[in-house]
Design goal:
By secondary structure, this protein is an alpha/beta fold. The chain has twelve helices and eleven strands.
Protein backbone atom coordinates (compact mmCIF):
# COMPACT_ATOMS: atom_id res chain seq x y z
CA UNK A 1 0.00 0.00 0.00
CA UNK A 2 1.32 3.42 -0.96
CA UNK A 3 0.05 6.69 0.50
CA UNK A 4 -0.08 9.97 -1.39
CA UNK A 5 -1.10 13.48 -0.38
CA UNK A 6 -3.07 14.96 -3.28
CA UNK A 7 -3.57 18.72 -3.57
CA UNK A 8 -6.13 20.45 -5.80
CA UNK A 9 -4.96 23.99 -4.93
CA UNK A 10 -8.51 25.41 -4.65
CA UNK A 11 -9.26 29.11 -4.62
CA UNK A 12 -10.73 29.72 -1.15
CA UNK A 13 -12.20 33.21 -1.52
CA UNK A 14 -15.02 33.35 -4.07
CA UNK A 15 -17.31 36.25 -3.08
CA UNK A 16 -20.42 35.22 -1.18
CA UNK A 17 -22.65 36.91 -3.77
CA UNK A 18 -21.17 35.05 -6.76
CA UNK A 19 -23.61 32.34 -7.81
CA UNK A 20 -22.15 31.23 -11.15
CA UNK A 21 -20.08 28.17 -12.02
CA UNK A 22 -16.47 27.91 -10.88
CA UNK A 23 -15.40 26.79 -14.36
CA UNK A 24 -14.78 28.39 -17.78
CA UNK A 25 -16.88 31.55 -17.33
CA UNK A 26 -16.03 32.37 -13.71
CA UNK A 27 -14.81 36.01 -14.11
CA UNK A 28 -11.07 36.30 -13.58
CA UNK A 29 -11.58 39.63 -11.83
CA UNK A 30 -12.65 37.51 -8.85
CA UNK A 31 -9.06 36.27 -8.50
CA UNK A 32 -7.14 38.31 -5.94
CA UNK A 33 -3.37 38.02 -6.61
CA UNK A 34 -2.61 38.70 -2.94
CA UNK A 35 -4.66 35.64 -1.99
CA UNK A 36 -3.13 33.68 -4.86
CA UNK A 37 0.40 34.44 -3.67
CA UNK A 38 -0.50 33.32 -0.17
CA UNK A 39 -2.19 30.04 -1.06
CA UNK A 40 0.26 28.92 -3.75
CA UNK A 41 3.09 29.10 -1.23
CA UNK A 42 0.97 27.60 1.53
CA UNK A 43 -0.11 24.68 -0.66
CA UNK A 44 3.50 23.96 -1.65
CA UNK A 45 4.43 23.94 2.04
CA UNK A 46 1.67 21.39 2.71
CA UNK A 47 2.96 19.12 -0.04
CA UNK A 48 6.53 19.36 1.23
CA UNK A 49 5.29 18.62 4.76
CA UNK A 50 3.89 15.29 3.54
CA UNK A 51 7.44 14.05 3.00
CA UNK A 52 8.39 14.96 6.57
CA UNK A 53 5.38 13.00 7.80
CA UNK A 54 6.34 9.83 5.92
CA UNK A 55 4.00 9.80 2.93
CA UNK A 56 5.19 7.85 -0.10
CA UNK A 57 4.31 10.57 -2.55
CA UNK A 58 2.52 13.79 -3.39
CA UNK A 59 0.14 14.55 -6.24
CA UNK A 60 -0.64 17.65 -8.28
CA UNK A 61 -2.96 18.03 -11.26
CA UNK A 62 -3.99 20.31 -14.12
CA UNK A 63 -7.07 22.46 -14.62
CA UNK A 64 -7.69 25.69 -16.50
CA UNK A 65 -9.82 28.83 -16.11
CA UNK A 66 -11.46 27.82 -12.86
CA UNK A 67 -11.54 28.37 -9.10
CA UNK A 68 -11.75 24.64 -8.34
CA UNK A 69 -8.01 24.16 -8.77
CA UNK A 70 -5.73 27.09 -9.60
CA UNK A 71 -2.96 24.88 -10.94
CA UNK A 72 -2.96 25.35 -14.74
CA UNK A 73 0.66 24.12 -14.81
CA UNK A 74 1.21 21.25 -12.38
CA UNK A 75 4.65 20.87 -13.96
CA UNK A 76 5.72 24.15 -12.35
CA UNK A 77 4.57 22.87 -8.96
CA UNK A 78 6.29 19.54 -9.54
CA UNK A 79 9.55 21.22 -10.54
CA UNK A 80 9.57 23.13 -7.24
CA UNK A 81 8.78 19.95 -5.32
CA UNK A 82 11.56 18.10 -7.12
CA UNK A 83 14.06 20.48 -5.49
CA UNK A 84 12.34 20.91 -2.13
CA UNK A 85 11.91 17.20 -1.41
CA UNK A 86 14.35 14.31 -1.39
CA UNK A 87 12.38 11.09 -1.09
CA UNK A 88 8.69 11.25 -2.05
CA UNK A 89 7.33 10.30 -5.44
CA UNK A 90 5.98 13.29 -7.36
CA UNK A 91 2.84 12.35 -9.27
CA UNK A 92 1.52 14.74 -11.89
CA UNK A 93 -2.03 13.46 -12.33
CA UNK A 94 -1.76 14.51 -15.01
CA UNK A 95 -1.01 16.61 -18.06
CA UNK A 96 -4.06 16.93 -20.34
CA UNK A 97 -2.34 15.70 -23.48
CA UNK A 98 -4.82 16.99 -26.12
CA UNK A 99 -4.20 20.54 -24.88
CA UNK A 100 -0.49 20.39 -25.81
CA UNK A 101 0.62 21.03 -29.37
CA UNK A 102 3.11 19.54 -29.88
CA UNK A 103 2.96 16.95 -27.06
CA UNK A 104 6.75 16.74 -27.11
CA UNK A 105 6.50 19.63 -24.61
CA UNK A 106 5.13 17.13 -22.10
CA UNK A 107 7.89 14.62 -22.88
CA UNK A 108 10.54 17.30 -22.33
CA UNK A 109 9.14 18.80 -19.13
CA UNK A 110 8.39 15.44 -17.54
CA UNK A 111 11.89 14.26 -18.38
CA UNK A 112 13.35 17.41 -16.82
CA UNK A 113 11.42 16.84 -13.59
CA UNK A 114 12.44 13.18 -13.57
CA UNK A 115 16.10 14.17 -13.87
CA UNK A 116 15.91 16.95 -11.26
CA UNK A 117 14.22 14.57 -8.80
CA UNK A 118 16.56 11.69 -9.70
CA UNK A 119 13.79 9.38 -10.81
CA UNK A 120 10.87 10.26 -8.53
CA UNK A 121 8.36 11.38 -11.17
CA UNK A 122 5.10 9.54 -11.78
CA UNK A 123 3.87 10.60 -15.21
CA UNK A 124 0.14 11.19 -15.32
CA UNK A 125 -1.63 11.49 -18.66
CA UNK A 126 -5.26 12.63 -18.92
CA UNK A 127 -7.71 13.33 -21.70
CA UNK A 128 -8.75 16.43 -19.78
CA UNK A 129 -12.15 17.29 -18.40
CA UNK A 130 -15.00 18.57 -20.55
CA UNK A 131 -14.61 22.20 -19.37
CA UNK A 132 -11.02 22.30 -20.63
CA UNK A 133 -12.20 21.94 -24.22
CA UNK A 134 -14.22 25.12 -23.91
CA UNK A 135 -11.32 26.88 -22.19
CA UNK A 136 -8.93 25.94 -25.02
CA UNK A 137 -11.46 26.01 -27.89
CA UNK A 138 -10.44 22.51 -28.98
CA UNK A 139 -12.87 20.22 -30.81
CA UNK A 140 -13.95 17.73 -28.10
CA UNK A 141 -14.78 15.10 -30.72
CA UNK A 142 -11.02 14.78 -31.32
CA UNK A 143 -10.17 14.48 -27.61
CA UNK A 144 -9.47 10.75 -27.46
CA UNK A 145 -7.73 10.61 -30.85
CA UNK A 146 -5.43 13.46 -29.84
CA UNK A 147 -4.80 11.84 -26.47
CA UNK A 148 -3.77 8.52 -27.96
CA UNK A 149 -1.54 10.12 -30.60
CA UNK A 150 0.09 12.37 -28.02
CA UNK A 151 0.66 9.39 -25.73
CA UNK A 152 2.34 7.44 -28.54
CA UNK A 153 4.59 10.39 -29.38
CA UNK A 154 5.72 10.81 -25.76
CA UNK A 155 6.48 7.12 -25.24
CA UNK A 156 8.31 6.99 -28.56
CA UNK A 157 10.32 10.08 -27.63
CA UNK A 158 11.31 8.50 -24.31
CA UNK A 159 12.10 4.98 -25.50
CA UNK A 160 13.34 5.12 -29.09
CA UNK A 161 16.52 6.75 -30.46
CA UNK A 162 16.14 10.00 -32.36
CA UNK A 163 15.98 11.88 -34.50
CA UNK A 164 13.06 10.18 -36.18
CA UNK A 165 9.83 11.27 -37.84
CA UNK A 166 6.24 11.03 -36.64
CA UNK A 167 3.35 11.58 -39.03
CA UNK A 168 -0.13 11.17 -37.58
CA UNK A 169 -3.61 12.56 -38.06
CA UNK A 170 -3.29 15.37 -35.52
CA UNK A 171 0.47 15.79 -35.08
CA UNK A 172 3.24 15.85 -37.67
CA UNK A 173 6.80 16.04 -36.38
CA UNK A 174 9.67 16.15 -38.85
CA UNK A 175 12.26 15.76 -36.09
CA UNK A 176 11.28 13.78 -33.00
CA UNK A 177 14.47 13.97 -30.98
CA UNK A 178 13.55 14.90 -27.43
CA UNK A 179 16.19 16.14 -25.05
CA UNK A 180 16.50 15.33 -22.17
CA UNK A 181 15.62 11.67 -21.77
CA UNK A 182 13.92 10.58 -18.53
CA UNK A 183 16.04 9.47 -15.59
CA UNK A 184 13.92 6.33 -15.12
CA UNK A 185 14.35 3.78 -17.89
CA UNK A 186 12.59 2.97 -20.07
CA UNK A 187 10.25 5.66 -18.70
CA UNK A 188 8.53 6.77 -15.48
CA UNK A 189 5.54 4.93 -14.03
CA UNK A 190 2.37 6.06 -15.82
CA UNK A 191 -0.94 6.86 -14.13
CA UNK A 192 -4.18 7.67 -15.94
CA UNK A 193 -7.24 8.86 -13.97
CA UNK A 194 -10.79 8.21 -15.08
CA UNK A 195 -14.41 8.84 -14.15
CA UNK A 196 -16.00 5.78 -15.71
CA UNK A 197 -14.98 5.98 -19.37
CA UNK A 198 -14.69 2.44 -20.71
CA UNK A 199 -12.16 3.53 -23.31
CA UNK A 200 -9.90 4.90 -20.58
CA UNK A 201 -10.05 1.67 -18.58
CA UNK A 202 -9.30 -0.41 -21.66
CA UNK A 203 -6.40 1.85 -22.66
CA UNK A 204 -4.87 1.64 -19.17
CA UNK A 205 -5.28 -2.13 -19.01
CA UNK A 206 -3.77 -2.62 -22.46
CA UNK A 207 -0.63 -0.69 -21.57
CA UNK A 208 -0.45 -2.06 -18.00
CA UNK A 209 -0.52 1.43 -16.54
CA UNK A 210 -2.28 2.42 -13.30
CA UNK A 211 -5.91 3.58 -13.16
CA UNK A 212 -6.82 6.29 -10.65
CA UNK A 213 -10.49 6.64 -9.69
CA UNK A 214 -11.65 10.28 -9.74
CA UNK A 215 -13.46 11.17 -6.46
CA UNK A 216 -16.77 12.77 -5.37
CA UNK A 217 -18.89 9.69 -6.13
CA UNK A 218 -20.84 7.32 -3.90
CA UNK A 219 -18.69 4.37 -2.84
CA UNK A 220 -20.78 1.99 -4.94
CA UNK A 221 -19.64 3.83 -8.08
CA UNK A 222 -15.98 3.24 -7.17
CA UNK A 223 -16.79 -0.40 -6.50
CA UNK A 224 -18.22 -0.82 -10.00
CA UNK A 225 -15.42 1.15 -11.68
CA UNK A 226 -12.56 -0.84 -10.16
CA UNK A 227 -14.35 -4.12 -10.86
CA UNK A 228 -14.66 -3.06 -14.51
CA UNK A 229 -10.98 -2.13 -14.59
CA UNK A 230 -9.99 -5.55 -13.20
CA UNK A 231 -12.14 -7.16 -15.87
CA UNK A 232 -10.42 -5.05 -18.55
CA UNK A 233 -7.05 -6.35 -17.32
CA UNK A 234 -8.33 -9.91 -17.48
CA UNK A 235 -9.43 -9.39 -21.08
CA UNK A 236 -5.83 -8.38 -21.81
CA UNK A 237 -4.73 -11.74 -20.43
CA UNK A 238 -3.39 -10.91 -16.97
CA UNK A 239 -4.43 -10.38 -13.36
CA UNK A 240 -4.06 -6.79 -12.32
CA UNK A 241 -1.55 -5.72 -9.68
CA UNK A 242 -3.15 -3.71 -6.81
CA UNK A 243 -0.58 -0.97 -7.47
CA UNK A 244 -2.27 -0.52 -10.84
CA UNK A 245 -5.22 1.09 -9.08
CA UNK A 246 -5.64 4.12 -6.85
CA UNK A 247 -8.58 5.48 -4.88
CA UNK A 248 -8.69 9.27 -4.45
CA UNK A 249 -10.71 10.31 -1.41
CA UNK A 250 -11.27 13.45 0.69
CA UNK A 251 -10.00 12.60 4.20
CA UNK A 252 -10.26 14.54 7.44
CA UNK A 253 -9.07 13.35 10.85
CA UNK A 254 -9.69 15.06 14.19
CA UNK A 255 -9.58 13.90 17.80
CA UNK A 256 -13.25 12.85 17.82
CA UNK A 257 -16.01 12.25 15.28
CA UNK A 258 -17.88 15.29 16.55
CA UNK A 259 -14.85 17.55 16.29
CA UNK A 260 -14.10 16.28 12.80
CA UNK A 261 -17.54 17.15 11.49
CA UNK A 262 -17.61 20.51 13.27
CA UNK A 263 -14.22 21.51 11.86
CA UNK A 264 -14.71 20.16 8.35
CA UNK A 265 -18.32 20.45 7.23
CA UNK A 266 -18.44 24.13 6.20
CA UNK A 267 -15.31 23.68 4.07
CA UNK A 268 -16.82 20.61 2.41
CA UNK A 269 -19.95 22.54 1.43
CA UNK A 270 -17.92 25.45 0.05
CA UNK A 271 -16.18 22.90 -2.13
CA UNK A 272 -19.26 21.04 -3.31
CA UNK A 273 -21.60 24.03 -3.66
CA UNK A 274 -19.14 26.70 -4.86
CA UNK A 275 -16.23 24.93 -6.59
CA UNK A 276 -17.71 21.76 -8.09
CA UNK A 277 -20.48 23.40 -10.19
CA UNK A 278 -19.28 23.43 -13.79
CA UNK A 279 -16.95 20.42 -13.47
CA UNK A 280 -19.62 18.30 -15.16
CA UNK A 281 -19.70 20.35 -18.37
CA UNK A 282 -19.74 17.72 -21.10
CA UNK A 283 -19.33 19.19 -24.61
CA UNK A 284 -20.87 17.34 -27.58
CA UNK A 285 -18.62 14.62 -28.94
CA UNK A 286 -16.41 14.47 -25.84
CA UNK A 287 -17.68 11.08 -24.64
CA UNK A 288 -18.59 8.00 -26.66
CA UNK A 289 -22.09 6.56 -26.40
CA UNK A 290 -20.94 3.36 -24.67
CA UNK A 291 -18.95 5.31 -22.07
CA UNK A 292 -21.75 7.85 -21.60
CA UNK A 293 -24.13 5.01 -20.79
CA UNK A 294 -21.73 3.79 -18.08
CA UNK A 295 -21.06 7.28 -16.70
CA UNK A 296 -24.79 8.06 -16.56
CA UNK A 297 -25.27 5.17 -14.14
CA UNK A 298 -23.39 7.20 -11.56
CA UNK A 299 -24.72 10.70 -12.30
CA UNK A 300 -27.19 10.69 -9.43
CA UNK A 301 -24.41 9.53 -7.12
CA UNK A 302 -22.11 12.49 -7.82
CA UNK A 303 -21.42 14.95 -4.99
CA UNK A 304 -23.26 17.78 -6.76
CA UNK A 305 -26.51 16.04 -5.84
CA UNK A 306 -25.81 15.92 -2.09
CA UNK A 307 -28.31 17.70 0.16
CA UNK A 308 -27.15 17.05 3.73
CA UNK A 309 -24.29 15.68 5.80
CA UNK A 310 -25.95 12.32 6.39
CA UNK A 311 -25.81 11.64 2.64
CA UNK A 312 -22.09 12.43 2.71
CA UNK A 313 -21.61 9.89 5.51
CA UNK A 314 -23.85 7.21 4.03
CA UNK A 315 -22.22 7.34 0.61
CA UNK A 316 -18.71 7.80 2.05
CA UNK A 317 -18.06 10.73 -0.25
CA UNK A 318 -15.54 11.94 2.34
CA UNK A 319 -13.84 9.90 5.05
CA UNK A 320 -14.23 12.07 8.16
CA UNK A 321 -13.89 11.30 11.86
CA UNK A 322 -11.60 10.30 14.68
CA UNK A 323 -8.47 8.24 13.92
CA UNK A 324 -10.30 5.02 14.78
CA UNK A 325 -13.31 5.91 12.60
CA UNK A 326 -11.17 6.95 9.63
CA UNK A 327 -9.03 3.81 10.00
CA UNK A 328 -12.07 1.54 10.02
CA UNK A 329 -13.63 3.19 6.96
CA UNK A 330 -10.41 3.24 4.95
CA UNK A 331 -9.51 -0.32 5.88
CA UNK A 332 -12.92 -1.61 4.87
CA UNK A 333 -13.07 0.27 1.58
CA UNK A 334 -9.50 -0.46 0.53
CA UNK A 335 -10.22 -4.15 1.01
CA UNK A 336 -13.46 -3.75 -0.92
CA UNK A 337 -11.98 -1.80 -3.84
CA UNK A 338 -8.69 -3.66 -4.14
CA UNK A 339 -6.54 -0.58 -4.72
CA UNK A 340 -2.85 -0.51 -3.82
CA UNK A 341 -2.61 3.29 -3.78
CA UNK A 342 -4.51 5.64 -1.49
CA UNK A 343 -4.60 9.25 -2.63
CA UNK A 344 -5.86 11.50 0.13
CA UNK A 345 -7.29 14.98 -0.34
CA UNK A 346 -6.30 16.38 3.04
CA UNK A 347 -7.09 19.98 2.12
CA UNK A 348 -10.42 20.84 0.55
CA UNK A 349 -12.25 24.07 -0.25
CA UNK A 350 -11.64 26.68 2.44
CA UNK A 351 -10.00 24.35 4.98
CA UNK A 352 -7.39 26.57 6.67
CA UNK A 353 -3.69 25.86 7.04
CA UNK A 354 -3.79 24.95 10.73
CA UNK A 355 -6.53 22.37 10.35
CA UNK A 356 -4.92 20.97 7.20
CA UNK A 357 -1.59 20.40 8.95
CA UNK A 358 -3.30 18.82 11.95
CA UNK A 359 -5.27 16.56 9.62
CA UNK A 360 -2.06 15.44 7.90
CA UNK A 361 -0.33 14.86 11.24
CA UNK A 362 -3.13 12.78 12.74
CA UNK A 363 -3.46 10.70 9.60
CA UNK A 364 0.29 10.11 9.36
CA UNK A 365 0.73 9.14 13.02
CA UNK A 366 -2.56 7.47 13.94
CA UNK A 367 -3.92 5.97 10.71
CA UNK A 368 -1.24 5.42 8.08
CA UNK A 369 1.03 3.07 10.12
CA UNK A 370 -1.90 0.77 10.89
CA UNK A 371 -2.97 0.69 7.24
CA UNK A 372 0.60 -0.16 6.22
CA UNK A 373 0.51 -3.10 8.62
CA UNK A 374 -2.89 -4.19 7.33
CA UNK A 375 -1.89 -3.98 3.66
CA UNK A 376 1.84 -4.78 3.33
CA UNK A 377 3.60 -4.93 -0.03
CA UNK A 378 2.74 -8.00 -2.04
CA UNK A 379 -0.44 -8.80 -0.12
CA UNK A 380 -3.61 -8.86 -2.24
CA UNK A 381 -5.86 -5.93 -1.42
CA UNK A 382 -9.16 -7.57 -2.31
CA UNK A 383 -10.81 -9.64 0.39
CA UNK A 384 -12.60 -12.85 -0.47
CA UNK A 385 -15.86 -11.12 0.35
CA UNK A 386 -15.13 -8.28 -2.05
CA UNK A 387 -16.61 -7.77 -5.49
CA UNK A 388 -16.09 -10.70 -7.83
Amino acid sequence: MRFFSFHLAPYPALPADYEGPAWVTCPNELFDPAIGAEVYNRYLDELVYAEELGFDGVCVNEHHQNAYGIMPSPNLMAAILARQTARVKIAIVGNALPLYDPPTRVAEEFAMIDNISRGRLIAGFVVGGGPEYYSFSINPAHARERFQEAHDIIIKAWTEPGPQEYIGKHYKLRFLNTWPRPYQQPHPEVWIPGAGSLETMEFVAKHRYAYMGIPYFHMDVFDRSFRMFREACEREGYQYDPKQAGWLAPIYVAETDEEARRQYEEHWWYFTKRLLPGININPPGYTSLRSMENIMKGVGSFALSLRDWQEVVDGEYAIVGSPSTVLEKLERNLARLGTGNLLGLFQLGTLPAGLTRRNLELFATEVMPKLRARFPDGKPMLEASGVA
